[in-house]
Amino acid sequence: MNSALLHNGNIVTAAEYNPDVHGSRIYCIDRNCKAPVIHVKSENAAPHFKTTGKNDGQRHNKLCGFYKQLSFEESIQKVEEYQGEFLEKGIKETVIRLNMNRIDPDYESKQIEREENEKTAKDPSEVKVKQESTTPNSIGSLKAIVKLLTTYDPDILASILVSVKGKKIPLSQLVISHDKAHQLVWEDRSIDNLGYFVYGTIEQVLRREKVYFINFKPVGNVSFGLVVFDKYFKHFTYTDEQLLGRKLLAWGSLKKNVYKDKNTTEMVIKSNKYIQFLP
Ligand SMILES: [Zn+2]
């Protein structure tokens, strides 16, 4: 764990922790857990907090985000739970730049070339190690988002703001379930022209002459689907068998649609790179 809850209700990171200032009563940050933790400082690892695990009251409980390795969905749910509180309490933020231009088949090659040139000086795909954080500085693919959410502890993820098109958005507001995406769109709370990362399970693939519809399994009567237009068929080569029943994360802007008098939400995607299967 990179953060701990103090006796006074504040949250401190392991790098900032000083027993003279913060006191010795420190706890797991998960409100379902609050197990006492200790601060660990050694030569081999970055400073962190851990439970002593000596007896029952000193271990993470089953509902805690640190009890076990979390799946992608469990991880994003915990990040959402922690993130509001963390950011409110002014925890040190980690900003990760997001630029998905590279996966767009329409993105001009000229622009890519220019980026390639910049890349020689600064490689955005390279994972750089900052002073207090080992998370990457920038992300440009769905694979990197999935890796982020399945690699790092939920408290580290809860400190992440994603910088995109001049906005800084908490990670848990950008990576969302499809029913939540639908809610955002129909309550007019989604940010225009901003891509969202949306996850769900594929239930149906309909291939028409001019368009493919890839429909997620409804959650709470919410219908959400991916759309591929014929211009992009050559970039989208997954077969029905590869898609049906699979959990995946998709990236794109959200759009309202009405089908048979029912409000639905759509995401237009252009290639294989716009989806990533979840582990
Ligand atoms: Zn805990």
Concise synopsis of the structure shown:
With 279 residues, this protein is of the alpha+beta class.
Structural summary, described in words:
- This protein is an alpha+beta fold and 279 residues long.
- It folds into three domains: 3-68, no CATH class; 94-173, no CATH class; 175-277, OB fold (Dihydrolipoamide Acetyltransferase, E2P) (Beta Barrel), CATH 2.40.50.140.
- The protein has helices at residues 19-22, 72-88, 109-121, 142-151, 154-157, 171-174, 178-186, 240-243, and strands at residues 3-6, 11-13, 26-27, 37-40, 48-51, 94-98, 138-139, 160-164, 167-170, 175-177, 196-207, 211-216, 224-229, 247-252, 254-259, 262-268, 275-277.
- It is elongated, with a radius of gyration of 21 Å.
- Zinc ion is lined by residues 28, 30, 33, 35, 60, 64, 66.
- Residues 28, 30, 33, 35, 60, 64, 66 line the site of zinc ion (ZN).
What attributes characterize this protein structure?
single chain; OB fold (Dihydrolipoamide Acetyltransferase, E2P); four-stranded mixed beta sheet; 8 helices; 17 strands; 29% strand; elongated; binds zinc ion
User: Can you tell me the CATH superfamily of the largest domain?
Assistant: Nucleic acid-binding proteins
CATH C-level of the largest domain: Mainly Beta
Count every beta strand, where a strand is a DSSP E run of 2 or more residues: 17
What is the element string, with H for helices and E for strands? EEHEEEHEHEHHEEHEHEEEHEEEE
Small ligands present: zinc ion
Which structural class should the secondary elements be placed in?
Answer: alpha+beta
Uncertain segments: 120-133
Helical percentage: 10-25%
- Principal-axis shape: elongated
Number of helices: 8
